[in-house]
């Protein structure tokens, strides 16, 4: 069903996309809404070229797509209907894929993926892609109310009998008719199928070319149309019969419908902005408190400001949202109450608006209990100066809960980095740090690094960074509109840079943050640069390009590596690598610190993955770069806890210490199922790589009888325990308290750590893995009893909603898991090797094995049965997990079983593993 009005330019492509479908048994109904530009004849001629098409025309223009679509539904002769706009197209297999699913599932609605194409930028964008990851079937919308956020009617196949039986039609007297149609269809559907295939191409044109109804938001009439449609949706959906749908649509009002208009207030003048707020306010007051409760703090502040009818404070809220700041000033304690109030000078006047006051308040406990590394800090500039080409910035960081002053020696710094294709960054330490009430004041001097390829760097970003020994947090640096930006220029230092004469200037970005950009140059300077270009490029290559990753399987790379291996070894140098360059912790980090204390003049290099930013004074080389290759070829000592790159070939006089990162439960090496039928060449290659290890740390006899033969290892075993566990073996209460301080965790709350193993289906995925935890249920059952720390495997990532801040904390960014062990009263894991290390503390462990059978049977298999030997109770559902946690936070019920497990499988840790290892290898 194709609705058309005055669109002769695009309708031909739309019709052709229908007639070009691989499923041929279709009827095309094109309904013209009384076009006035002659395009109706164009549409008629293309439609009637095929006997499967019919051209219809309304008698009177309806003013929207509701009229043509309603007429089309009345005339439809097929069993199913699919809607198409005249400026969009169908994917070639759309009808085939949708119909196949409809006939298979007998669903009333089949939903497929929509792809959006930006005409001007010539790029593709998604549309609610998370809904269309895999094929799914739901008995009703209540089984997955999230589907209702996709309210466009295109890319969906509807059963015609279902629509007619339930009298589902498009309203013809308002715009945004899709909202009403979709809500009625969802609430009445008996069977909804979702397929991952794409069915629809939504073309997005520049506003000056073709302004959609959604983009006509500079008109109050547009807002009134949408609110009328939403009012009809609210009346149509029975919250007692469809509570899930009703609740999700209420949240959608706040997250999408109203937000569209509030977003525009940033650029509107105060008069139009105030008019929008006055129209919105009565509608917002009818939204359920439960919907507002699902918003995070910046969103709540936004709606509080909207209800206050204050465009200026709405813009302040967007500063918080766009800069991803958890809080911005003014946020002050609300007298003797247990809350902080934002813009209290204004909200105190609104005693008649309880919803407004509630939205602009945040519990003191939420401010004070949120760990510092979970806060999105607000940083702003106080003053900018440029002298002799050097940029001086005086700034401040908003800290309403005084978290930073309570930390143990936090480091404040600025990271300056190049934007665009050439990636360079540098961390500069801030000076004159002063804690002044709710603010932390700081100064910084910024010079453009001499080794940057100035000709290739157009723009420079600046990010404030807070860090300590355990973790870090970056934010945006805002330039308030009251700050004057100097017009003086800054430039790279050094003779070559002076001659090249590249100049930069500070500017305020479109987001209001601080940046630096390169200025245009005159003809004479450009000529000078061409003359000295070879010298300049050599300097850049020498200092920077050699530290960029390259293609490691090329002949050129292999040749260079072979030649480097002919150079003499540096007998006083060690190359460290932890978790393939993603960390500086675990046993390699402990050995590095111990080696530095025993042999302070010994040279250490660290292998760091390209995307990893490290804090601290490390000599680092980027993994897979030319500098890395040089260190790999010339270092006398090599230290690793996983595996060096496949192209590594050990030299005869090199000494390689392997500090494997865990005691295995899962089968390893030659014991893996993949090696059962592998060729002898593949098996020999594995054993050969392991033979490079001169020393292997062996924490216990179980490791020696499983891991060692699994790699055919024959060289020396260091039976000293695991260096990473030295700190756990020596841990006392004062050390544990210090870790809590560094992490910003309260001393009076119980801490539970959940550390699951790697999930294979999400390797290299940009999507967060699904947590098999009901976080809402956890808060209900355990939120008052403990704080839950969640640490994903370093190859996985997770996403936790900000509303859980302070109660459920993502600690995946903390490399040193020993610090998390130290502060935790109980560990929850599944099949991860952390269970063996945690035994060192002799604290309760729970095994949350919700997929035990699948994991054991479908993955690599295990060396022993967890059901037969376990360090703690095994639970397979969340209700049992919650109950078990509550019990063990009070009484250690599994002590005997854990001790038996430890004796058989855990490491024998005496706290001196690192010292003994360093003495044996370097002594």
Question: What would you note in describing this structure?
Answer:
With 923 residues, the protein is an alpha/beta fold. The chain has 33 helices and 39 strands. Strands 4, 6, 7, 8, 9, 10 and 11 form a seven-stranded mixed beta sheet that branches. Strands 17, 18, 21, 22, 24, 25 and 26 form a seven-stranded antiparallel beta sheet that branches. A seven-stranded parallel beta sheet has the order 29-28-27-30-31-32-33, sandwiched between helices. Strand 12 (331-333) and strand 13 (339-342) form a beta hairpin. It starts with a strand and ends with a helix.
Reconstruct the topology from this structure.
Blueprint: E1 2-4, H1 11-19, E2 28-32, H2 39-47, E3 53-57, H3 66-75, E4 80-82, E5 84-85, E6 89-90, H4 94-105, E7 109-118, E8 123-125, E9 136-138, E10 156-159, H5 160-165, H6 177-188, E11 192-204, H7 220-236, H8 243-264, H9 270-284, H10 289-293, H11 297-307, H12 311-322, E12 331-333, E13 339-342, H13 344-347, H14 354-359, E14 361-363, H15 364-369, E15 378-387, E16 390-398, H16 403-406, E17 411-419, E18 425-429, E19 431-436, E20 439-446, E21 459-467, E22 472-474, E23 477-478, E24 490-491, H17 495-500, E25 503-508, E26 514-518, H18 523-543, H19 555-564, E27 570-577, H20 586-598, E28 603-608, E29 620-622, H21 626-634, E30 635-640, E31 655-658, H22 673-676, H23 680-691, E32 695-697, H24 701-710, E33 716-718, H25 726-729, H26 733-743, E34 750-754, H27 775-782, E35 786-790, E36 808-810, H28 817-823, E37 826-829, H29 834-838, E38 845-848, H30 852-858, E39 874-875, H31 878-888, H32 895-905, H33 913-922
Parallel strand pairs: 1-2, 1-5, 2-3, 7-11, 15-23, 27-28, 27-30, 28-29, 30-31, 31-32, 32-33, 34-35, 34-37, 35-36, 37-38, 38-39
Antiparallel strand pairs: 4-10, 6-11, 7-8, 7-10, 9-11, 12-13, 13-14, 15-16, 16-20, 17-18, 17-21, 19-20, 21-22, 21-26, 24-25, 25-26
